Each structure stands twice: as structure tokens, then as C-alpha cells.
């Protein structure tokens, strides 16, 4: 569609209704202007063309903390922070991208999709995505894209996966008639990170960003995970999801992160298996003394967390399906307690006096106890960084003021679960 008509569509009732669902009614005017700026930015960079608009959200981990790497279960959701872009075919053999947020401009020759020696950065990532499409038997061609993002970096909401799924949506619509499903998007994003960034990532982040809404994933068969979209209107509960950045740790946390999956796998190894999804909690308890001697006590605790967390994900999904929101919140609290006590990923023992996550959780628990409502838990990998709180809308601003007094101004982000994943916005309005 030409740019003038695209701008007119953005002022229409259909766009307003869509943006209300995607971002919340109070944010529709700002989002209209944001999309218009993308259209104008595209025209300035690439000239006047028929364009399509795209959006891909960040994601939040609702429950299933440190379960995916041992082929367990996860509950995740897409959020109202997103990457937005305008794209158009350019009838050449080049992909030209302008990323406003990261002040990047680069061109990729489709005849040369080999990664750089560093295997890092946005250009390598896009090359990996394009190569992934080709390796999967899909069409790829030259296109221009102008992209902006408000997905927070280093907050556990997957800014890179949001960008990846945006590019996937563009390639799907521009060159493959929209026939590629979101599971294929996720595998292509995983391929790019594995081979072009040398990052041993799974499918969780990409799936949550691509599918949209609330989804549960069972990674028992990691090459073909079972994904189910949960039809639940989170906004109907009048609850806000708040992410709090508690501060980056000063210690190198690589060993802490690696130890979690490795220790769980050590317990599975005792039984001749590779991951905890291949054994049962009963197996561990029935052989507890021998497993403790073989794998160590923290390994056993982390394995027990894995089994119980899988049960919690199942219980949360059932509670949402049956509209038992308070039961859902109780399981979120239980998930957080298990991460803190059993999984033990709320601070690093290499620097035990630095406990930003546990301080923030303690303060949040005091707030929730006083108000009598809400839930909180560590968010993502842990050891340093981010927590999540779920609170009624009328308490959200008060909580943000309260927690930012301890963590610093600008460290708490109020979000909502949006019902759309990576989409062509032009096709929805």
C-alpha cells in the first residue's frame, strides 16, 4: 500500500481498535504517531514505495523458571513493548535495514550470507535468519526495512528475539505469501543464534514473541515442542505485570547460569538419562541417598524444583482455562518461592553480599502482604537482574514509586499481555 493511504489507515477506527488491543486504550494516540514516524522514516531513507507495517512483541516468562533446558514446561506471554517496522520489496539482491533504536544502517548481499569472524551484532543475526529461511526451503529476496523498538534490553523480555521474529514476519509476508507458521519462525531464530552468534539458545524466547498472547510450551521433544495458546483475556482481570530491573551483578555469572542445567542433568545422569524430563520425582526420592552422593545436594534440590515447577505450569494453565485467577496467582507465588529456596538462583554465592533480586523480592513481598493481593517471582535466568510482580492496576503506580525508591528511578516497567505475536499490522487494519 502506498504511504499516503497507509498514513490515512493509521488514523482510522480499525487502527485505533487494533492498537487498543495491542497496547492498551491509553496508549493508542502515542502508538499512531509512532507508526507514522516509521512510515516517514522509511520514506526518508528509501523513498516513496508501497510498504507494509509489522510488529513483533517482547516476551515475559510467567512460570517455568529454568525448566526448558531440561526439556520441561513453560508458561510465557507476549507483552505490549515491541519492535515496529515498515518494509517493502526492492527488486534487488540486497537487504537494506535501518534500525533507529540502535543507530544502525547496513546492507546485506544475498549472495554472501556467511557470518563475520566475530559472529556478533545485528548484521550477523539477520544473515543467519536469511540463511535459515533458505535452509528451510523458503523464499528470500531483496527488501528495505526501517525498524524501531521499545523492548527493553537486559530486562529478560527478549529484545533480540522480538527483532528476529519481526524480520521473520517480513520475509514470510513479502516472499512466502504468509504461509510459514510461527513454529518455523522460532526454529529459524534459533538457527540464527546457534550458528551466527554461537549462542546455545533454545526456542522459548522466539516462540513467545512469535505466537503472541499467553502460551504454554512442553519441550519434552525439543526439536518439535508442543505449543498451546491459552485463550485468556489477561486485561479483563485489571492486573498489571511489572518488571523491575534490580541492577546488574558485578560478578561474572556465566558459571552460575551453566551450573543450573548441568546440575539438573547430573541427577538425570545417575539414572542413565540426559535430562530431568526423562526421569521422575519418585525416582529421585526413592534413591535419595545415592543420588545425593553422586550429584550433590544442590543438584537434587534443583531437580526437585524442576519437577514441581512443571506441575505448577500445568496448574496455572488449568486455572487460566477455568478462570480461577487467584489460584493462578498463588501458583506464581509458589514458583517464586521455589526459585528462591530450591533452585537458588536469586543471588550468586560468589558475591553473597550483593542481592538486588532478593532485596527487591523481600520489599515486594512486604508490599503484597500489606495490600493482601498480588504475586511476585524472579524473572528469567536470575542471580542478578530482574523480578516480576503481578498487581491490581490501581496499585501499580504506588508499587512502582515504592520499589523505585529502593532500586532507582526508571527501573520498573508496567506492562500488559498483548494478544498478538509477530504480525503484519497492515493486514489487520
From TrEMBL:
Give GO terms: molecular function aspect only. ATP binding; galactokinase activity
Q: Which residues form the Galactokinase N-terminal domain?
A: 42-89
The taxonomic lineage of its organism, from the top, reads: Bacteria, Bacillati, Bacillota, Clostridia, Lachnospirales
Q: Which family does it belong to?
A: Belongs to the GHMP kinase family. GalK subfamily.
Domain (GHMP kinase N-terminal) ranges: 125-213
What UniProt keywords are attached to this protein's entry? ATP-binding, Kinase, Nucleotide-binding, Transferase
Segments forming a coiled coil: none
> Which Gene3D superfamilies does this UniProt record tie to the protein?
3.30.230.10, GHMP kinase, C-terminal domain
Which source organism does the UniProt entry give?
Answer: Candidatus Lachnoclostridium stercoravium
Q: What is this protein called?
A: Galactokinase
Name any Gene Ontology BP term.
galactose metabolic process
Q: Name one GO cellular component term.
A: cytosol
- Pfam families of this UniProt entry? GalKase_gal_bdg, GHMP_kinases_N
